[in-house]
Design goal:
Number of domains: 2
Mean pLDDT: 91
Radius of gyration: 19 Å
Number of strands: 10
CATH superfamily of the largest domain: Nucleoside Triphosphate Pyrophosphohydrolase
Distance between the termini: 32 Å
Structural class: mainly beta
Shape: elongated
Strand content: 35-45%
Number of helices: 2
Order of helices and strands: EEEEEEEHEEEH
Helix content: 10-25%
CATH architecture of the largest domain: Alpha-Beta Complex
Length: 179
C-alpha cells in the first residue's frame, strides 16, 4: 500500500459525517445554515449547541546531531511502520515548544534544544495543525517507546522519502533541508 494512503481513514481526518450526536446532551446533530456566520454547521437538535469541528494542535521537532537527522519508525496508527520526526499533541497546560521537547524525549529518548521555528503545517483534509521546530540533540540516548519501533540517524541524502508517514513529515523535512 502506498505510504500516503495508509492513514486515509484515521479519525484525525476531518470528516464531519462521522459526527452524529451532541457531546453535551446526546441528541442528534443536524446540519444547518447559520446566517450570522455565513456557514453550515452541525447543531444539536435538542439543546441548540453549535458543534465547531476545529483542528488539534500538534508540536514536532526535527532533531539534528552533527550532519544527521534523527527519525523514528512509528509503532502506532496512523502511519504505522513509516518514518517521521518526533511529535504529538499539545497538552492543556503546556506550551507548544514544551510539547515538542516532551515528545522528542518520550518518542526517542533524546533531550533536544529547539533552535527555532521551522514552519506551521495545515491541510484541509487533516484535523491537525503541526507546529514544527528545528532542534539539536543535547543529551539522552536513542531509546524505543511504545510509539517507536526503530530510531535511526539519517544523512539528508539517505532520508527514506517513499516511507514517510505524513504529508507534514515530507513538507517539513524538505523545508528543513532547504535552509
Amino acid at each position: 500500500m502506498p505510504a500516503r494512503s495508509r492513514h486515509r481513514d484515521h479519525p484525525h481526518l476531518s470528516d464531519e459525517s462521522r459526527l452524529k450526536f451532541c457531546p453535551l446532551c446526546g441528541a442528534p446533530l443536524v446540519k444547518r445554515w447559520l446566517e450570522e456566520e455565513r456557514h453550515t454547521r452541525k447543531i444539536c437538535s435538542g439543546c441548540g449547541y453549535i458543534f465547531y469541528l476545529n483542528p488539534k494542535v500538534a508540536a514536532g521537532v526535527v532533531p539534528r546531531e552533527g550532519d544527521k537527522i534523527w527519525l523514528l519508525r512509528r509503532n502506532i496508527a496512523p502511519g504505522d511502520d513509516l518514518w517521521t520526526f518526533p511529535g504529538g499533541y499539545v497538552d492543556l497546560g503546556e506550551s507548544v515548544p514544551e510539547a515538542a521537547v516532551r515528545e522528542a524525549l518520550e518518542e526517542t529518548g533524546f533531550k533536544v534544544r529547539l533552535d527555532g521555528l521551522l514552519n506551521v503545517y495545515s491541510y484541509t483534509n487533516v484535523g491537525i495543525v503541526l507546529v514544527a521546530y528545528r532542534g539539536s540533540v543535547v543529551g539522552g540516548k536513542a531509546a524505543l517507546s511504545p510509539e517507536s519501533r526503530e530510531i535511526r540517524a539519517f544523512l539528508p541524502k539517505d532520508i527514506p522519502w517513499e516511507e514517510l508517514a505524513f504529508s507534514s513529515t515530507r513538507d517539513a523535512l524538505r523545508d528543513y533541508l532547504q535552509h
